[in-house]
Amino acid sequence: MRMSYTRQLLIERPDIPKVAIGILAAMMLFGLFSVGFDQGQLFSLVEGKEAFDSNWLHEFVHDMRHAAGFPCH
Fold this sequence. Notes:
By secondary structure, this protein is mostly helical. Helices cover about 55% and strands about 0% of the residues.
């Protein structure tokens, strides 16, 4: 008499810490805020009035702003 045995694999999903998800979400929101808001306002804290003329961050992420749906012209 033959008996067959089956093997089952139990694959456990590692738990992702909620703190890590919160940090990533905060970074994403800050990045979205920075891209959407900046016309020199964020760098004016460091550079002063020159930041309004250079729009450094605005020019750096110009295409990403349009892809995210932010009009900038």
